[in-house]
Amino acid sequence: MNKKKISAEKRKKAILSVILALISVIYILPVLAVIINSFKQNTYVKTDTFALPTGEMSAGFDNFIKGMTFGNYPFIKSVTYSVVITLLSTLLILLCTSMAAWYIDRVDSLFCRLIYFLCVFSMVVPFQMVMFTLSKTADKLHLNTPWTIPVVYLGFGAGLAIFMFVGFVKAIPLEIEEAASIDGCGPVRTFFTVVMPMLKPTMISVGILEIMWVWNDYLLPVLVLDINEYRTIPIHIQYLKGSYGTVDLGATMALILMSIIPVIIFYLACQKHIIKGVAAGAVKG
Fold it and tell me: What is the pTM of this model?
């Protein structure tokens, strides 16, 4: 009986592995299409989408050069704005939400619980419901520059971050903070010297997720920023249009590839921290 059970479990695992492998191939195909077509002549992108860029179809690195030099808006400027917005937004989210989560859990008042549930509720509110009101509010408050738009990202990224940080703070023994208080540490010093170092796993996990979100975001910058003056990489790619609205798909694929490579490398290098951070931030009973 035991041998039959073991063989049945092996068959189930083999079937599940095949199913997951097929699903993985489906997800990888669009990425492979981008890689292949970024080295292909524009005329062959539509007609021979999944053909390898060999012979007359090959464009070499011309698509990359064309994409970076197209139009009057420098590509390096778009890269700079994307880096600035991503870093400032992520740092602001990590700092503010970690402090807020610590306060919410330790004070544990009715007001703090209300704030916590509102933050969690914001995770299920579709962006499309608030985007028009948000764009007008951002204009009135002058949050329409790369140096002020991180405040807007803080509002949308706070829900998930606070949810994860509160779950982790619950696992931190209160006695450690009491010992720091006896040694003369105030609340601010206690947080930065005692609590924040212990939040490192969740901070890394939240930071990775926020960086991937902000770097690839198109809708919020295009609604809030003046796209004639400030363009992130997704907006720059969107405006790779020639006369009569024609789009050079080869150059577009090349810039898409250049934009996703840093995120893929960053994710692969830090993916183990995501699992650790999510597990560490799970709500303790």
Answer: 0.84
